[in-house]
TrEMBL record:
Cytochrome C biogenesis protein transmembrane domain segment(s): 203-413
Spans traversing the lipid bilayer: 200-224, 245-267, 279-300, 321-343, 355-379, 391-409, 429-450, 462-482
Bilayer topology annotation: Multi-pass membrane protein
SUPFAM superfamilies associated with the record: Thioredoxin-like
Keywords, comma-separated and alphabetical: Cytochrome c-type biogenesis, Membrane, Signal, Transmembrane, Transmembrane helix
Biological process per Gene Ontology, one example term: cell redox homeostasis
Secretion signal span: 1-18
Protein name: Thiol:disulfide interchange protein DsbD
Pfam family, one: DsbD_TM
A single GO molecular function term of this UniProt record: protein-disulfide reductase activity
Gene Ontology CC: membrane
Record-annotated Thiol:disulfide interchange protein DsbD N-terminal domain positions: 34-144
Length: 670
């Protein structure tokens, strides 16, 4: 069962996050043994870094390679099994079994015998699965054609297989046969990126830390000794107390994970990603976060109805497993005024990533909440080491309030970027963050007090240290008002070009044009002042004129990872040099809300939805052509829109991204 779950997760992650392609090319040939006996050969050429599994793997392991030979005329029979080369045999740690795989290439042979004089070509099919060090692509199949040579062609075909390797003629003929018979699988979209798995891990870690932050609030922290004391006193033995506390902690996890599952089920794994660019979604969540922040700062408390809390509490009195579960539910309800804003923020932020991110987020959050209850129940002596409840709990709550307030303006910025209103440009956004974090620093230094704060005669060393960190961060933000890149928060503020001084303070657009020359028709200065086209046709026309390959950049105004790539990777001198000099950049914003002319609107063949806006058009192009809908997504193409290399998704590794650009440019020059 464990092995099956691992396989399902591998396939699910590959199909959900990936932009998939097939790194295997198959070619076929036939060798004649006698008048009616032939050997069918299928050779796999495997892209570097990937491996193909063998045919004979135990059940419960990775999907094995399997061949099927179609015989509608019943005119031949298989002699023995399909054979394969030696390959590599290892004990796989994931599947916990001995497996065989191939790298670079693999040859499979099958001997057949025709049972009648009706000798014809043979059709076959191969089903296979490939993996690299971090991902597995879903099993796929490929049609194979085995051309049985006639007497006239036999000599050339036999030469291909048996002539000596140093024969120039044989090499030439072999190349011709391969070119004729090879069925290349053209990669249309890139393999699942390690960044995607890192994205889920990041969500889990952030959610886990947020759970600990919620734990240190006035609504939750005092519940730890009370709950642990209840279990130790009500249980007849110490073992029973520990068991009940463990069940209590597990129930907390179930409740929050169930919440994440419900959010995923309601919105769907794919539609959640679209929420992050929806104007109304961002505006509503901006308002919600401001309300949450005001609550944390002490303006009011957000509470669920008392009737609901009382009803759940009455169920908790029944005892047993059901009673323990309702005790956990009661904790979630009673502590909602503190955990609700954090849970809400996590759910929406995770939801914008799509897929199982909300479930992963709630898993991390709930584990952090549940862990102390279980540990302190197992080791009640540790309770003596816990700090006493007091004013410091409200300080934690206030700090969270300031952080919620800063985050709220990220969502308002998303809406402004999508609508291109230029109300919340980079300088305004940074000014707000400087004010928020500056006030947080003053609060930590005791210069500001809020409604529920206890009298502060002195500040602790820990509070002073944290205050200095916040003050340092505030000072770090200030140069951003004059054009500093602020790589530490890349992706959060609006991009450099979305500002009052897109070229930095004191550099006008005119002086910039003198440096770069006049802009081509339909182009503008994009990220890092790179000449950028937003129209596919105009960009392609310019690329043909200057004789350069095209870098298609499927991006979004509200895409955080897109901004990170532009500010952290594209700013690197060697990458920037390539983008400025060696390619023509076409940035297609999938969340551009400008409506298409009525005559250009259409119904998508892929999704069946009406394409009304420019963003819809580019999104439909990405889905239809590359079977991908995540951003950022980069494709290097020639002047006929043919891929020059495997497309790339979010990849913050500068060297890898630079190497990817170079590979596409080299393919263009061949």
């Amino acid at each position: 069962m464990k092995k099956i779950i691992i396989i399902v997760l591998l396939l699910f992650s590959a199909s959900m996050f990936a932009q998939m392609y097939n790194p295997v090319k198959w070619s076929t040939s036939v060798e004649k043994v006698s008048d009616k006996e032939y050997i069918l050969k299928a050779q796999a050429k495997i892209q570097s870094g990937w491996h193909l599994y063998g045919q004979y793997i135990e059940e419960g392991g990775p999907s094995r390679t399997a061949f099927t030979f179609k015989n509608p005329n019943k005119n031949f029979e298989l002699i023995g099994k399909t054979t394969e080369e030696k390959g590599h045999e290892v004990v796989d740690k994931i599947f916990d079994m001995k497996i065989k795989y191939f790298e670079d290439k693999a040859l499979f042979t099958q001997k057949i015998k025709f049972t009648s004089d009706n000798i014809s070509n043979i059709e076959g099919e191969v089903e296979f699965m490939v993996c690299d060090d971090s991902n597995c692509l879903p099993p796929t199949s490929e049609e194979l054609a085995f051309k049985i040579p006639t007497e006239k062609k036999l000599a050339a075909t036999e030469e291909t297989t048996i002539v000596k390797e140093d024969s120039t003629t044989a090499k030439t003929e072999e190349k011709a046969v391969v070119q004729t018979e090879e069925k290349a699988i053209k990669p249309v979209v890139s393999s699942p990126k390690k960044a995607e798995s890192r994205g889920l891990l990041t969500i889990f870690i952030l959610a886990f830390l947020s759970g600990f932050a919620a734990l240190l609030t006035p609504c939750v922290f005092p519940m730890i000794p009370m709950t642990v004391s209840y279990f130790t006193k009500q249980s007849k033995t110490k073992a029973a107390g520990i068991r009940n506390a463990m069940i209590y902690g597990f129930s907390i996890v179930i409740i929050y994970v169930l919440l994440g599952s419900i959010v995923t089920a309601i919105f769907g794994a794919d539609s959640l990603n679209a929420l992050s660019t929806n104007v109304w979604f961002n505006l509503i969540f901006f308002i919600l976060l401001v309300v949450f922040a005001c609550s944390f700062l002490g303006a009011f408390e957000i509470m669920l109805p008392n009737a609901l809390a009382n009803k759940v509490d009455s169920q908790a009195d029944k005892g047993g497993l059901i009673g323990i579960f309702f005790m956990a539910l009661a904790l979630a309800i009673v502590s909602f005024s503190c955990t609700g804003p954090i849970v809400g923020t996590l759910l929406v932020e995770a939801a914008s990533k799509g897929g199982i991110a909300p479930i992963v987020g709630m898993l991390g959050f709930s584990i952090a909440i549940a862990l102390p209850f279980s540990l302190f129940a197992a080791f009640p002596g540790w309770l003596n080491a816990l700090p006493k409840s007091g004013g410091w709990l409200n300080t934690v709550k206030v700090v969270l309030g300031f952080l919620e307030l800063a985050l709220a303006f990220k969502f308002l910025s998303n809406a402004d970027l999508v609508l291109q209103l230029h109300w919340l440009e980079r300088e305004v956004f940074l000014a707000i963050w400087i004010a928020v974090f500056g006030m947080l620093a003053f609060y930590l230094f005791g210069k500001i007090t809020l409604p529920h704060d206890s009298p502060l005669n002195h500040i602790s060393v820990g509070r002073l240290g944290f205050g200095l960190i916040i003050l340092s961060f505030t000072i770090y933000l200030i140069p951003g008002l004059w054009g500093a890149p602020l790589k530490l928060i890349s992706g959060f503020p609006p991009p450099m070009q979305y500002s009052e001084s897109p070229n930095g303070l004191g550099v006008s657009s005119n002086s910039e044009l003198k440096i770069t020359g006049s802009l081509p028709e339909g182009a503008e200065h994009g990220p890092q002042n790179i000449i950028t086209f937003h129209d596919y046709d105009k960009g392609m026309e310019y690329a043909k004129k200057v004789g350069k390959p095209v870098l298609l950049d499927f991006t979004g105004y509200a895409c955080v990872n897109c901004r990170k790539m532009e500010e952290l990777v594209w700013s690197d001198p060697k990458v920037l040099g390539v983008l400025n000099n060696d390619v023509v950049l076409i940035s297609l914003y999938v969340d551009d809300k400008k409506e298409l002319p009525e005559s250009e609107q259409y119904v998508s063949e892929t999704t069946g939805k009406k394409i009304k806006t420019i963003g819809n058009k580019w999104s439909d192009l990405q889905i239809k052509t590359y079977k991908a809908n995540a951003q950022p997504f980069y494709v290097i193409v020639d002047h006929n829109s043919a891929n020059l290399t495997v497309p790339s998704a979010y990849n913050p590794n500068i060297e890898e991204y630079y190497g990817w650009l170079q590979s596409g440019i080299k393919s263009f020059k061949k």
